[in-house]
Amino acid sequence: MIYCEDNSNSYEIKPCRSCQNCPLCCYKALIKYSLFSNSYPTLMLAYQFLLTLPVTQIACERSFSTLKYIKNRLRSTMSNEHLENF
């Protein structure tokens, strides 16, 4: 069972009610007990990579949609003079 700190009292450790076995709680436990430096450096690195991965593709899709909008806007503002110079 994964334990998380209670925000009200730093000396009391309670079971995590929200997730039980989420990667964020495991990562916090590795940091809290300093297990990342000696015992499990590879596991710590794996959790860092896992926590940086996006859960959905929304951010990626938004950036491509914005790029598509900008490219279309720039193409429509190009005049014949600019096109002939190339």
UniProtKB/TrEMBL annotation:
Q: Which Pfam families match?
A: Dimer_Tnp_hAT
**Cross-referenced InterPro entries:** HATC_C_dom, RNaseH-like_sf
What GO molecular function annotation could you give as one example from this UniProt entry?
protein dimerization activity
What domain of life?
Answer: Eukaryota
Q: Which SUPFAM superfamilies match?
A: Ribonuclease H-like
Domain HAT C-terminal dimerisation residues, every copy: 32-82
Could you tell me what this protein is called?
Dimer Tnp hAT domain-containing protein
Q: What organism is recorded for this protein?
A: Aphis craccivora (Cowpea aphid)
